[in-house]
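Researcher: We plan to redesign the surface later, but first we want a full-length starting point. Tokens attached.
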């Protein structure tokens, strides 16, 4: 009983610091989603465009982003950008930039696959009704493609929650780094347990939210 009370008191002391780390993790997560999903869609459309001269560049970009470790990309942006461009960037900005560039490549492939899965009859019916290519894309194709892509987007989003732990490698005070510092200071692994609970709660919330979104799309059909 005394041991349990000690853990409760220790958790109470630790929670403010863990919450601060969680806010950093949340910041990385939110900004990555806000910028990587639209960028991924643009890249997907660029890969599908037959007249796009930048298609080989986009293909190479997606290949590099998906073929190299995210941790390496974070380190490259943080240490490489100042050397190459002679600029100073914060570890927070470096982390967000690396994550956005990485996840945009994955979302690009998800959206590309979803778009090409749309039946060609949808295009023909749209053109027969007098829709232009642009209107067909935005009002007919993309809404259906997003519904198809939603399960894969859900998986990538949940993976993103866990991947945010990689930013601790550039000394960003995220949830995992906060827990690790507490472990080293207090010589107990209990902070790792608390961090695991935080990640698990975030994953459960996202899973529930995306499930409701999928149910809504299913109902609208």
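Model: Full-length starting sequence:
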């Amino acid at each position: 009983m005394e041991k349990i009370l000690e853990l409760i008191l220790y958790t109470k002391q630790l929670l403010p610091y863990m919450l601060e780390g969680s806010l950093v993790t949340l910041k990385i997560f939110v900004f990555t989603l806000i910028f990587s999903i639209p960028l991924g869609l643009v890249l997907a459309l660029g890969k599908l465009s037959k007249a796009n001269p930048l298609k080989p560049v986009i293909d190479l970009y997606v290949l590099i982003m998906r073929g190299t470790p995210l941790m390496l990309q974070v380190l490259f942006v943080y240490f490489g950008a100042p050397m190459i461009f002679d600029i100073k960037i914060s570890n927070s900005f470096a982390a967000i930039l690396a994550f956005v560039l990485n996840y945009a490549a994955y979302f690009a492939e998800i959206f590309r696959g979803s778009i090409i899965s749309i039946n060609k009859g949808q295009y023909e019916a749209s053109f027969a009704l007098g829709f232009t290519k642009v209107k067909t894309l935005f009002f007919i194709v993309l809404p259906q493609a997003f519904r198809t892509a939603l399960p894969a987007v859900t998986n990538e989003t949940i993976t993103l929650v866990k991947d945010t732990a990689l930013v601790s490698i550039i000394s960003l005070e995220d949830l995992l780094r906060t827990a690790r510092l507490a472990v080293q200071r207090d010589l107990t692994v209990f902070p790792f347990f608390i961090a695991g609970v935080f990640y698990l709660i975030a994953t459960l919330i996202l899973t529930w939210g995306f499930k409701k979104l999928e149910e809504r799309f299913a109902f609208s059909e």
